From TrEMBL:
<keyword id="KW-0677">Repeat</keyword>
<feature type="disulfide bond">
    <location>
        <begin position="114"/>
        <end position="146"/>
    </location>
</feature>
<feature type="binding site">
    <location>
        <position position="144"/>
    </location>
    <ligand>
        <name>an alpha-D-glucoside</name>
    </ligand>
</feature>
<keyword id="KW-0862">Zinc</keyword>
<feature type="binding site">
    <location>
        <position position="137"/>
    </location>
    <ligand>
        <name>an alpha-D-glucoside</name>
    </ligand>
</feature>
<keyword id="KW-0256">Endoplasmic reticulum</keyword>
<dbReference type="GO" id="GO:0036503">
    <property type="term" value="P:ERAD pathway"/>
</dbReference>
<feature type="binding site">
    <location>
        <position position="118"/>
    </location>
    <ligand>
        <name>an alpha-D-glucoside</name>
    </ligand>
</feature>
<dbReference type="InterPro" id="IPR009033">
    <property type="entry name" value="Calreticulin/calnexin_P_dom_sf"/>
</dbReference>
<dbReference type="GO" id="GO:0006457">
    <property type="term" value="P:protein folding"/>
</dbReference>
<keyword id="KW-0430">Lectin</keyword>
<keyword id="KW-0106">Calcium</keyword>
<feature type="binding site">
    <location>
        <position position="120"/>
    </location>
    <ligand>
        <name>an alpha-D-glucoside</name>
    </ligand>
</feature>
<comment type="similarity">
    <text>Belongs to the calreticulin family.</text>
</comment>
<feature type="compositionally biased region" description="Basic and acidic residues">
    <location>
        <begin position="418"/>
        <end position="428"/>
    </location>
</feature>
<dbReference type="InterPro" id="IPR001580">
    <property type="entry name" value="Calret/calnex"/>
</dbReference>
<dbReference type="GO" id="GO:0005789">
    <property type="term" value="C:endoplasmic reticulum membrane"/>
</dbReference>
């Protein structure tokens, strides 16, 4: 654990001395920071959960198959189709009246198919050798991927012993490069979620979790007032129908129509001039519409204050003492790294910036080179398979022709012997 005094501007020594005498000291605290350098194993305890069933996986200390810095190692899940559980302990931390920052990086090198990549913060006493899926936690944060439907970021908070997932559907990254996930929880219960230092989501525990009842509810006892005006436009009562308007016909004889020369009144009947729409006819008369001066809009059920006991410490988690990784993966290969728990968002952003600035492009180039090698190997294996298939087809064709020749030879021999027997019999 480390404490850092925030002193950003340069101040003369004497003035700084006077300032320190009159102002309280503000510290930012690094609660836990793990870069998985040499000796990391002494700080972490691998759980025996699922070991007796043969379903417990393990962790490699590695930078992965491609990395911007081969010496920058994390811990990678292996082998496939296992449960993975590991945790580390640190001095108990209470986030009351403080900002909580939880941050880590993960790289999905594998085609994960279905599995988690999240971390957990744990409170109280935890038997680390038995840490597993049923161990209570105070916070669960990170990506979870399964098939094409589930590609989400979990953000689950525990309140009074019950877990509450965030109501928002937040998408996680699905490529095979390193990404940083940062969760910031403040004293006013507001939060920000960052991915690679870019804001992905923000909100409040009051509105984005179903922990407390909503502060406002609809008053379903309210009824629309009888004099409520919901009509935006009304008839203009001063508008008067023009004189003779009702005498205007909707159709009039077509002045251009002429009786056909071939028309025979005796046979065809009396010819009548066809009619056409009257251009002067405007339809049934209606008063003009004007803006309703008493318009109040569509009536809506009003909102009222919800009477419940608020919790000013809604944002406060149970004092945390452990950070853990507990996931199940169909295909293993995820690299966890750069775990940070602190109360300083600026420091967290600085960590992400420095690591991505140094390693992002190099890691991308290493990944693209690895992809070229992989694709070339797959093409080589596919070519070998095609050649082997062609060889087998040719062998099957040779065997068939050989069998046909053998059958023809046997048939010829049988027919020849039969002919000779008949010939000898005739001679006798």
């Amino acid at each position: 654990m480390a404490r850092r005094l925030l002193l950003t501007p340069k101040i003369p020594t004497f003035s700084l001395f006077l300032l320190l005498l009159t102002l309280p000291l503000f510290y930012s605290e690094i609660i836990f920071e793990e870069r998985f350098e040499d000796g990391w194993g002494s700080r972490w305890v691998k759980s025996d959960w699922k070991k007796s069933e043969g379903k417990a996986g393990s962790f490699k200390h590695t930078a992965g198959k491609w990395s911007g810095d081969p010496d920058d190692k994390g811990i990678q899940t292996y082998p496939d189709a296992k449960h993975f559980a590991i945790s580390a302990k640190f001095p108990e931390f209470n986030n009351k009246n403080r900002t909580l920052v939880v941050q880590y990086s993960i790289k999905f090198e594998q085609n994960i198919e279905c599995g988690g990549g999240y971390i957990k913060l744990l409170s109280g006493y935890v038997n680390q050798k038995k840490f597993g899926g049923d161990t209570p936690y105070s916070l669960m944060f990170g990506p979870d991927i399964c098939g094409t439907q589930t590609k989400k970021l979990h953000l689950i908070l525990s309140y009074q012993g019950q877990n509450y997932p965030i109501r928002k559907d937040i998408q996680c990254e699905t490529d095979k490069l390193t990404h940083f996930y940062t969760f910031i929880l403040r004293q006013d219960a507001s939060f920000t979620l960052l991915v690679d230092n870019r804001e992905r989501e923000f909100g409040s525990m009051y509105t984005d979790w179903d922990i407390l009842p909503p502060r406002k509810i609809k008053d379903f006892t309210a009824k629309k007032p009888k004099d409520w005006e919901a009509r935006e436009y009304i008839d203009d009562l001063e508008d008067v129908k023009p004189e003779g308007y009702d005498l205007i016909l909707s159709e009039i004889p077509d002045p251009d129509a002429k009786k056909p020369d071939s028309w025979d009144d005796d046979e065809d009947g009396e010819w009548r001039q066809p009619k056409m729409p009257n251009p002067a006819y405007k339809g049934p008369w209606k008063r003009k519409k004007i803006k309703n001066p008493n318009y109040k809009g569509k009536w809506k059920t009003p909102w009222i204050d919800n009477l419940f006991e608020d919790d000013p410490d809604l944002y406060v988690l149970k004092p945390i003492k452990y950070v853990g990784i507990e996931v199940w993966q169909v295909k293993a290969g995820s690299v966890f790294d750069n775990i940070l728990i602190c109360d300083d968002p600026d420091y967290a952003r600085k960590v992400v910036h420095e690591i991505l600035e140094q390693n992002k492009e190099a890691e991308k180039e290493a990944f693209e080179e690895a992809e070229k090698v992989r694709l070339a190997k797959e093409e080589q294996e596919a070519q070998k398979a095609r050649e082997e298939g062609e060889r087998r087809r040719k062998e099957r064709g040779y065997d068939k022709n050989h069998r046909d020749r053998e059958r023809y030879r046997d048939k010829y021999k049988r027919n020849r012997h039969s002919y000779m027997d008949d010939y000898d019999h005739d001679e006798l």
